[in-house]
Write a structure and sequence with these properties.
With 168 residues, this protein is mostly helical. It has one domain. Helices cover 66% and strands 0% of the residues.
Length: 168
Amino acid sequence: MRTITATAGSAAFLAIAPGVVAGLVPWWLTGWRMGAAYPAPVQITGAVLAAAGTAALLAAFAQFAIQGRGTPAPPAPTEQLVVRGLYRYVRNPMYLAVLAVIAGQALLLGRPVLLGYAAAVAAACIAFVYGYEQPTLARRYGAQYQAYRRAVPGWWPRLLPARKTPNP
């Protein structure tokens, strides 16, 4: 897949999946109106968390298009296993970024309903990763993916990047 096609496909999937999960649904749940008056440090933490999650999500999507020459969408997967950038620290940065955006909105807006929603999204992500994504990647990339799984944690980011991630 050409980089331009991968970029366009990734951008479309970004709007459809994370855009709905971390943007549209929280808006439906809250109207993005302030709820409980949380202390300023909590709201600032929420804003930072949402901004960091957004930045991480965009960086992870860019890695898929540039390095993997594909998209995160199952119908248009990457040609190569993505193991650079944020993927040197954790195997699931997109899911973690989406959860950070939702949790950040909950803290910023003082809307606990979004924390419950984040928990439901987390459960769905975990089920998808273990039930579909890991088996699919193991079949597609074989030993390279198994080496990557051994080198990089799935959910709790490393403080230092993995040195021995398999290069595609």
